[in-house]
Amino acid sequence: MDRSGAAFRRGRLGLAHLVRLVPVLGFLTGAPAGAAPLAPTPVPDLAGATLQPVAYGALPGWSADDQGAAFATFLASCRALAKAPAEVGPASRPRLQPALRQACAAARRLGTATPTPALARLFFEANFRPFAITPTASPRGFLTGYYEPEVEGSLIPSADYAVPVYARPPDLISDAPGSNKGPAYRMQNGARVPYWNRAEIEDGALAGRGLEICWLKDPVDLFFMQIQGSARVRLPDGRVIRLNYDGHNGQPYVPVGRLLIERGIVPRNEMSMDRIRAFMEADPAAGKALRRESPSFVFFKAVPLKDGEGALGAQGIGLTPGRSIAVDRALHTYGTPVFISARLPIASPAPETPFQRLMIAQDTGSAIVGPARADLFFGAGAEAGRIAGRIRDPGDFFLLLPRFEPREAAP
Predict the structure, then answer these.
(1) Is residue 398 within 8 Å of residue 350, measured between CB atoms?
(2) Nearest to 29 by CA among 143, 94, 152, 125
(3) Phi first, then psi: what are they for 152, rounded to 5°?
């Protein structure tokens, strides 16, 4: 039997290693003296799917993943669970928050924000139980990708910078404030009417009201900003400002890629954001008409931009490229670890790159609907956009359920 340190690093623990780790496991999971008593976390209901308990050995590529990177991303969620950030998006399902806070307490007891991959793997195994998510409507889940665009803009309008980016209008009335779904209205002659659609806004419905945050060079850039929900705007003097989602006009979002497929303009197996952009840039008039077939329009707000921080997710924290995901907030709780296994078109347009990673749910989106549905965050810039735009692939989802929650939180 291999009892060397290398065996531990590869995730194969012999009996002697397990014996030595018993006190470590207790340290990683148990509540400190004087803390509230704990109870096992009940398996939550997950509409549209079944949850089947599995062993960690059943997670493809689990032992080869860098759980240390996932641990750092999880700690960011822990900070948001401990104290709500100043800027947050639509709230997620709260059911697992007490259990996640208990796991966060165990994470802090490690005493380091940068554990080795082996120690981080041990932490997750000691504090979470894996469950395979099987959607009732399909055998596997579905993955897409998103990113933070970097676009050219100016704080002053000109012939070169003529595309306004609007802040949330004060007359926008929503049935669900803070939500990224549902209708929105404005008052007209004492009655509520649907808010202006994309074509009406582009034609000047909001002009002259002082809502312009900045102006862009390219209307296609604005369209993709609205799909992604955030952007970095590089100004002529080299400064960069960050814009983040701050509501929408309540009109339906129509996937323009689907329209191009249905009309035989782009083959389904070649569809990507790059193909959509190429179509719009090759024929600006047709591109404008296509954009207007999706009447949804997104509003933004300026948020602080810290060095090295990813786009701001709905949990109110900077996202981590390759470790943060957007999920259906009505079904999942922000901060929940989810292991994903798939083959994706990352290295090339063909779905051949193994993707087997522990991800953390930190964001949401109006198109992210379902129990095994995720948007993978790939970072900022053109290359991240090229990769994200290719992702439309099946994948296997495994929910990591915290093992314990405070006894008073149990239903």
Answers:
(1) no
(2) 125
(3) -90, 135
pLDDT band for position 16 (50/70/90)?
A: very low
For β-strands 230-234 and 150-154, DSSP reports them as parallel
Helix, strand or coil for residue 353?
strand
Both structure tokens of 87: 């800027």
User: How far, rounded to the nearest angstrom, does the alpha carbon of residue 10 sit from its chain's CA centroid?
Assistant: 30
**Residue with the larger pLDDT of the pair 162 and 22:** 162
Amino acid at 223: F
Tell me the C-alpha distance between 383 and 193, whole Å: 41
CA angle, 358 then 120 then 112, to 5°:
125
DSSP reduced 3-state for 43: coil
Interatomic CA distance for residues 234 and 245, integer angstroms: 17
Cα separation, 375 vs 327, in Å, equals: 7
Count CB atoms within 10 A of the CB of residue 299. 21
Any idea what DSSP says for residue 63?
A: G
8 Å CB contact between 387 and 348? no
Cα distance between residue 30 and residue 357, in whole Å? 26
Separation between Cα atoms, residue 408 and residue 322, nearest integer Å: 35
Whole-number Å distance between alpha carbons of 142 and 183: 26
In which order are the strands placed within the sheet that holds 230-234? 163-166, 212-216, 150-154, 230-234, 240-248, 298-303
In the DSSP assignment, the letter for residue 182 is S
Amino acid at 369: V
pTM reported for the whole predicted model: 0.81
Q: What is the DSSP letter of 167?
A: B
DSSP state of 263: T
Give the pLDDT score at 8: 32
Angle between helix 67-82 and 117-127 (nearest 10): 50
CA distances from 226 to 17, 92, 346 (A): 51, 21, 23
